[in-house]
Amino acid sequence: MSKISRFFKGGGSAASKGRGGPSPQEALARLRETEEMLSKKQEYLETRIERELALARQHGTKNKRAALQALKRKKRYEKQLNQIDGTLSTIEFQREALENSHTNTEVLKNMGYAAQAMKKVHENMDLNKIDDLMQDITEQQDVAQEISDAISNRAAFGDEFDEDELMAELEELEQEELNKGMRDVRLPSVPSTSLPSRPGKIPACHFTFLMIKPCSSTRKRAEDEDEMKKLASWAS
């Protein structure tokens, strides 16, 4: 019995019959087997057509009867080839439809599993409890935000003092320090006697009341004292 006969007459495994029909996978496998068989039949017919055509050319007008017989066989093979082409198209369409149906079935099955899993997950969930939980979360977030704002604000230590009063007090302290510095400054004493009418050759370093910089002479102390005595006797 050919594969096509077994397929269309319901030839299958005992397991498939026991289940009341083949599974999609088994049906797809059968259709692919049939396609493979018909494809091989196509190759065989194409080879026979080429052979009969060559035989008809070989006989030609020399043996018209043999040439005509070869052409008749070629026509029958071509007719079978056309039939196989149509059958293959039908089987291919059926296989694609079955594959799509199987895919849709698997998708729906998996979606059903997912729906059952979601239902099981939601069995222990109470919408009222969820609303209360979300409200508690919102309140705690508000409390956390208030705490963060309070921590991040600048501490108001010492804000009870008036800044203007503090500035005035600081200016008074600065003025006192300035006045104290002015009192500590010693001005040079002015001599009570008049200056000599005639110039004398007196070392400039001894007029300390006219000089800002102190005398830097390296003369001996004895010479300085002697000059001071002379100046005092002249002034008197």
TrEMBL record:
Keywords: Coiled coil, Cytoplasm, Endosome, Membrane, Protein transport, Transport. GO terms for biological process: late endosome to vacuole transport via multivesicular body sorting pathway; protein transport; vesicle budding from membrane. It holds the Pfam family Snf7. The keyword Coiled coil applies. Residues 9-21 have a biased composition (Gly residues). Transmembrane segments: none annotated. It is a peripheral membrane protein. Residues 1-25 are annotated as: Disordered. It is found in: Cytoplasm, Cytosol; Late endosome membrane. Its main location: cytoplasm. The gene is Chmp4c. This is CHM4C protein. Coiled coil: none annotated. One of its GO terms (cellular component) is multivesicular body. It comes from Bombycilla garrulus (Bohemian waxwing). Belongs to the SNF7 family.
